[in-house]
Design a protein that fits this description.
The chain has 348 residues and is an alpha/beta fold. The chain has 13 helices and eleven strands.
């Protein structure tokens, strides 16, 4: 059964071009109906360059305003009440769409989503969760990667619960640990006493949960496959995410330069071309689409500002999968169950 996803057509750095390209790819490949939300004349003019879109389930929904990347989130959200973000999220709120995708201002997307959709009972703040490939040919989910730069210990506790559920849902049957993910708390050392006040206090809260808690993990564990879910505040998580993206670009550039330095190496590249393609694909953020905001009463996916059509298509796919999975209902149930268990243990 086809599912409807609303897309902020004004969000990305090169909007609305990648949003339209992504919508066309998604409508063809992912059994979805796409609502492109933005200024009607701007979106329709770009859409006219793609005559193949006329036969696809793609529609334009007008929003007179949009929020730029350089705008202060709280102020922009308050002043621009007809922004493409707010209009798109209203479509989710009223049931017209099952999910929302934006490659726009992350802070504004988080504030608007929390305001329009609200949070699941028991969740104080939504968290952005993103997927990293590992050397063990598995995946690691890290959250938060930018929605909350200042956190309290109970926020990290809630992130751990949501990350555990998210990993179990999206990787069910794919990895041996998917039924009981290994959860780690990102810190500067493995010992329980290492870290700052936030991580030390969060450690005590997370270890009380019915999770497969490894304790503290370090930055190197993000890619070695030791943990399935890594929890941190949004400041640290966003720095780790941006460092990773920069490293990937540097490795690609260095590798390309090295392979082109001699005829012998060029021949070697031709022989190993498929392996290099696989390497590039595994490290390409566009393959993962975007980061879901976990903890909302609805589905909202935040994509990279420099997203291309492939990234937007995959973000739409992730939004559709999220909506079909019933993930929010699972989060609400397990947040409630965990709170009950913690309250019972405190009484004992």
């Amino acid at each position: 059964m086809s599912i409807t996803i609303a897309v902020d057509a004004m969000g990305a750095d090169r909007a609305p071009k990648p949003e339209i390209e992504g919508a066309i790819l998604a409508a063809r490949q992912c059994d979805v109906r796409v609502l492109l939300v933005g200024q009607q004349d701007v979106v329709s003019a770009e859409l006219a360059h793609h005559p193949e879109a006329r036969s696809l389930p793609i529609e334009v929904v007008h929003a007179s305003e949009f929020i730029g990347m350089d705008e202060k989130a709280a102020q922009a959200v308050k002043q621009k009440r007809d922004s493409s973000m707010r209009v798109g999220l209203r479509l989710v709120k009223d049931g017209t769409a099952s999910g929302f995708v934006s490659a726009g201002n992350t802070g504004a997307a988080m504030v608007t989503a929390k305001m329009v959709l609200g949070v699941i009972p028991g969740v104080d703040r939504p968290a952005l969760a993103t997927v990293f490939p590992t050397a063990a040919n598995t995946a690691t989910i890290m959250l938060d990667v930018g929605a909350n730069v200042d956190c309290k210990p109970q926020n990290l506790q809630q992130f751990a619960i949501m990350g555990d559920i998210y990993f179990r849902t999206i990787f069910s049957g794919r990895f041996p640990t998917a039924s009981h993910p290994r959860v780690g708390l990102l810190s500067v050392g493995e010992e329980e006493t290492k870290g700052n006040d936030l991580t030390r206090d969060a450690f005590q809260l997370i270890k009380c949960l019915p999770l497969n808690f490894l304790g503290n993990v370090e930055g190197r564990d993000l890619y070695n496959g030791r943990a399935d879910v890594i929890v941190c505040d949004g400041f640290v998580g966003n720095v780790a995410l941006k460092v990773s993206e920069g490293l990937v670009e540097a490795v690609r550039a260095i590798l390309k330069e090295s392979l082109q330095s001699s005829f012998t190496r060029q021949m070697g590249y031709l022989l190993a071309r498929e392996a290099f393609k696989d390497f590039k694909k595994r490290l390409d953020y566009s393959e993962y689409g975007g980061a879901p905001l976990l903890g909302l009463k609805g589905v909202a996916i935040v994509s990279h500002g420099s997203s291309n059509g492939t990234a937007i298509k995959n973000a739409i796919r992730v939004a559709a999968e999220f909506a079909r999975s019933g993930l929010n209902e699972k989060i609400e149930h397990e947040i409630h169950a965990s709170r009950e268990q913690v309250n019972a243990s405190e009484k004992d």
